[in-house]
Amino acid sequence: MDTPTADNIYTVSRLNQTVRALLEQALPLVWVEGEISNLARPRSGHIYFTLKDADSQVRCALFHNRAMRLRTTPENGDQVRIRARIGLYAPRGEYQLIAEHLEPAGDGALQRAFAALKARLDAEGLFDPAGKQPIPTLPRRVGVITSPTGAAVRDIVSVLRRRFPALPILIYPVSAQGERAVGEIVDAIRTADRRQEVEALIVGRGGGSLEDLQAFNDEQVARAIHACTLPVISAVGHEVDITIADLVADERAATPSAAAERLSPDGEALSRALRQGRERLQQGLARKLGERREQINRLERRLSAQHPGRRLRDRAQRLDELDQRLGRAMTAHLQTRSRQVERLDRRVQAQNPTPGLQRLADSTARLNQRLERGLRERLNRERARLEASARTLESLSPLGTLARGYAIVQPVDSGAVIHRATDVAVGDPIRARLNEGILIARVEGHDETT
């Protein structure tokens, strides 16, 4: 047995440091998949957790600089896949995984499928810029392929209505995610291409996870966009979301709102440019007319100086005629351009909601007046009916009969009314109710004559 010396005796710290160095040098980066448990987030921003499967577990650390790059926040119970280095935590002598990247296990598979499809379609030339169509600057109508209930369609319609209300919009409603999404999106693209009722298409939806955007990473959708003869703008998700549809489309917009802005001119700027163009045209025509008149004047002076007689007079008359024709032609041209500008200005002004709102306000006022008049008439009719009923009730009331001098006769010990003299016996007490007061009497005899 060897005798220990100072050189071959390890302290615990030295042993752990040696083992850590061996682990870090010997093992490369590894991918490990499992379920998160015992997750902790101290104030330092680091994330500590245990990764386990049915039979084993290993402690893991994801430091702050890496945790800041995560797109989703991990939670206990999540099934994840991490790329990590194997190390050893010397103070406790425990080996652990130092994670450099963490992703949901399902998204990892989707990401690999995305990368494979992207490489294959790129090799086929579907992303080639040379095959992309130009986007029209002022289309007559825009088609939108998206979910009719999502935020994307509201953003697109809002931007188009704000920037250029005269631009018509045609919605092709589809499911933006789920089992039916791919088929519906492909059918909508082909339908729009077949009908040719729009001049440009926006295909998109709002942001989401890689799984939510899967329909726009489908090969069928990519090939439908590539085969479409209409210019297509892809507007899927937010700026950080890149899909296969974005790559194959004729142009990619960072957001649905950005796609709407790309296809719609600024209505106010266009109107301002038309007014400026009209002013420049008027100034140019006036300048041109001035130049022509000056030229004519110079010619007249030259002719006058040469004094060719009749020929000069004929030429002067001809020049006058040409000047008038030129003035009329210039004026007619200016009027035509002015009418064009006015028509365009009226198209823009026709979208102003103020007249419609005023009409609605006037209609509401008229309806309020009719309602008040109807209520007054109904109240008067009901008051008249009530007064008539009161008069009828008063005429039928026994109190009215008593007021005319009659009385109601009843036995003293009963509430019944005495109708015949034989209903009581001689000597019975009776009560006679008058219009004012009650009499107590006793029967003295019968007289059955009427």
UniProtKB/TrEMBL annotation:
Domain annotation Exonuclease VII large subunit C-terminal: ranges: 126-440
Keyword Transmembrane helix: no
Compartments (UniProt record): Cytoplasm
Keywords: Cytoplasm, Exonuclease, Hydrolase, Nuclease
Domain OB-fold nucleic acid binding: 10-102
Broad class of enzyme this protein falls into: hydrolase
Cleaved signal peptide residues: none
EC number(s) given by UniProt: 3.1.11.6
InterPro entries in the record: Exonuc_VII_L, Exonuc_VII_lsu_C, OB-fold_nuc-bd_dom
A Pfam family it matches: Exonuc_VII_L
GO molecular function: exodeoxyribonuclease VII activity; nucleic acid binding
Catalysis performed (reactions): Exonucleolytic cleavage in either 5'- to 3'- or 3'- to 5'-direction to yield nucleoside 5'-phosphates
One biological process term in Gene Ontology: DNA catabolic process
Assembly information from the UniProt record: Heterooligomer composed of large and small subunits.
Function statement: Bidirectionally degrades single-stranded DNA into large acid-insoluble oligonucleotides, which are then degraded further into small acid-soluble oligonucleotides.
NCBIfam families the record matches: xseA
Record family assignment: Belongs to the XseA family.
The protein's name in its UniProt record: Exodeoxyribonuclease 7 large subunit
